[in-house]
Amino acid sequence: MTTTLITGATGFTGRYLAAALEQAGHAVVGLSHGPAESTVPGLTRTFACDLADLPRVRDIIEEVKPDHVVHLAAIAFVAHGDVEEMYRTNIVGTRHLLTALQGCAGRLRSVLVASSANIYGNGRGGTLDEDTPPAPANDYGVTKVAAEYVCGVAGAQLPVIVARPFNYTGVGQSTSFLIPKIVDHVRRRAPVIELGNLDVARDFSDVRTVVDAYARLLGTPAAIGRAVNVCSGRATSLAGVLDSVRRLSGHDFQVSVNPAFVRADEVKTLCGSPMLIESLIGPLTHIPLDDTLAWMLGA
């Protein structure tokens, strides 16, 4: 049986990916920064491990002997308060994992590293493809650019695929993120929601679309050595999201701008081209944003 190791397996994306890979016939093993959980559907075993502990990471890799690895573990909240922790986790953690994997390079079939569309930065019009040069506008984007360079150095002997997901959401995502925050307010019938930058537009996908893309990329040798966008190719304004939530929920509410939530380095528009990834794995299973919002509102 194919064995796949997921770092960050008990997080938002990891839980969906573990279940999807288990259904596809993988034996899925997880790494979790916190206490190991045995209740995540799809996981056959979970190891508690801090990627800063390289000897521990090496021991786990030697024991598991994975065929595939998906590296999801990261601090993904752009406004995370501890910048040092973000840099340490997102860059050094990636370096340690790839270093440990070099010991079983001959066995590995693919290593998918989750980067981010935040590497593209701000102020660019049109649709962004993989040839767009990185120009990160915040520390999170900088850490992801650096992690991609780590993949090019430490992963030179490994079958690495870099995935650049644009914004995605779904049931179970932290309310620190925009759409879950809006949905949470509506489910509580709150009359007012405080937001930051309102003049933004994002290329939103459903988490189920993203994990399906990740699972298919793992089995696509032509993707090895490449960076690929995971996106819908359509940007939706925040105003459009708010209108959809009002319509689907039947609940009206006011929006108040809280200066504490406004970020000067906010990326105003992010829209990606899915042309490359669809040329590699076929059409993505796009789920309309209204369907995703209805799923989240009804959860």
TrEMBL record:
Sequence similarity: Belongs to the NAD(P)-dependent epimerase/dehydratase family.
Start and end residues of each NAD-dependent epimerase/dehydratase domain: 5-231
One Pfam short name: Epimerase
Domain of life, per lineage: Bacteria
Protein name: NAD-dependent epimerase/dehydratase domain-containing protein
Gene3D superfamilies: NAD(P)-binding Rossmann-like Domain, UDP-galactose 4-epimerase, domain 1
InterPro entries in the cross-refs: Epimerase_deHydtase (IPR001509), NAD(P)-bd_dom_sf (IPR036291)
Pathway(s) per entry: Bacterial outer membrane biogenesis; LPS O-antigen biosynthesis
Organism: Sphingobium ummariense RL-3
